[in-house]
Amino acid sequence: MNAAVTAENEMAVDDRIAKLESDMSHVRSDIVEIKDDLKSVRGEVQCLRTEVHSFKTDVAKQFGAVRAQNGEFKSEVTREIGLLRTAGRCIFPDGQAPDRGSREAMFAYSCEVR
């Protein structure tokens, strides 16, 4: 009787080992799939890094261009305001504007702005 129980236990152990081996082969195949997916994700992340870096570079260039245009505009406006101040002093040297209706008075107060 003891031999029958031992034989039955050995069968159960052999069946358990076979099931564990089968499960381990499934685990190994799952690990291989995960590694492949991870490689794919790493490649996609590297592509995204490259795109973000190029976008960052383009944005920096565009902001630099806008800053340069802003500086040019500021210089131009400053120059134009200076010309208007100079022209105002030439047209009305005494600080008094002539009558609007009098062309002769306007001509007398005007001068050439260079």
Average predicted local confidence, pLDDT: 80
Total count of strands: 0
Number of domains as seen in the coordinates: 1
State the low-pLDDT regions, or none. Answer: none
Task: List SSEs in N-to-C order.
Answer: HH
Q: In this structure, how is the largest beta sheet organized? A: none
Strand content bin: under 5%
Helix content: over 70%
* Overall geometric form: rod-shaped
Integer-rounded radius of gyration: 45 Å
What structural category characterises the helix and strand content?
Answer: mainly alpha
How many helices in DSSP terms?
2
What's the N-to-C terminus distance?
Answer: 126 Å
Give a structural overview.
There is one protein chain. By secondary structure, the chain is an all-alpha fold. The protein has one domain (about 1-110). It is about 85% helix and about 0% strand. The chain contains two helices and no strands. The model has no long low-confidence stretch (mean pLDDT about 80).
